[in-house]
Design a protein that fits this description.
Elements lengths: L7 H14 L8 E2 L1 H8 L3 H13 L3 E4 L3 E4 L4 H25 L2 H22 L6 H16 L5 H21 L5 H15 L3 H22 L1
Antiparallel strand pairs: 1-3, 2-3
Helix pairs in contact: 1-3, 4-7, 4-9, 5-6, 5-8, 8-9
Length: 217
């Protein structure tokens, strides 16, 4: 059965969230309803609902008598987000390695193949597809934890990952061969059913990415 088309509200939510994550809507900027109405072809009521949803997810702040603003960024916030990502992702990957079947292994290998091809392109100096690179990065990390069999855990991880991604895209950090080697380590450990090694590579990957991003802020 085909999926129903997205509603105006859900489409507007995803578009504004994407523009916040990728820096089109800058941290701390005021979100004026009249401007958003023109930009996203949405009604004021839809925009208010959307901005309140984004506020509940932490991407927007609502100030009484002043309106809505893109949530500002800080090094302290990034450190907390990175810690939460490690906490959630290492638990999820341990469960996923224990539960994953052959189909799961195939999905992980396929996701890594796409990411690896994009990383090689980035290492060559071609950074024209950075959004595709980060999408493949997300798909690989998601594939590793998808077999955790906990929708609540996956949902929480997705929200934290989006916040972490926002910081990466604001300073556009790509660590080249080091990050690629960490991804390869996670892949090999997952296929070997070695959760401790997979988690070690994961923590190294996130910690190194955190340092790299903090230095660029």
């Amino acid at each position: 059965m085909a999926k129903p088309p997205p509603t105006v509200g859900s489409s507007t939510f995803e578009r504004i969230k994407r523009d916040i994550i990728f820096g089109t809507l800058a941290p701390g900027s005021k979100l004026k309803l009249d401007d958003l109405k023109t930009r996203y072809s949405a009604s004021v009521s839809t925009l208010r609902e959307t901005l309140n949803r984004l506020a509940s997810d932490g991407f927007v702040t609502a100030e009484e008598q002043r309106g809505f603003f893109v949530t500002p960024v800080s090094k302290e916030d990034l450190r907390e987000i990175a810690s939460l990502r490690i906490l959630l992702e290492r638990h999820a990957i341990r469960l996923s390695i224990a539960n994953g079947d052959t189909d799961w292994e195939g999905d992980v290998v396929a996701a890594h193949h796409k990411l690896q091809r994009m990383e090689l392109q980035m290492q060559s100096g071609d950074e024209t597809e950075k959004e595709t690179w980060k999408r493949y990065d997300w798909e690989f990390h998601l594939s590793l934890i998808r077999a955790c069999n906990s929708q609540n855990l996956l949902s929480l991880h997705s929200k934290i990952y989006d916040k972490y991604l926002r910081y990466q895209m604001l300073v556009f950090t790509f660590r080249g061969e080091a990050a690629a080697a960490e991804h390869q380590g996670m892949l090999d450990a997952a296929l070997s059913r070695d959760p401790d090694t997979a988690i070690r590579f994961l923590e190294e990957h996130i910690d190194n990415g955190l340092v790299h991003t903090l230095e660029a802020m």
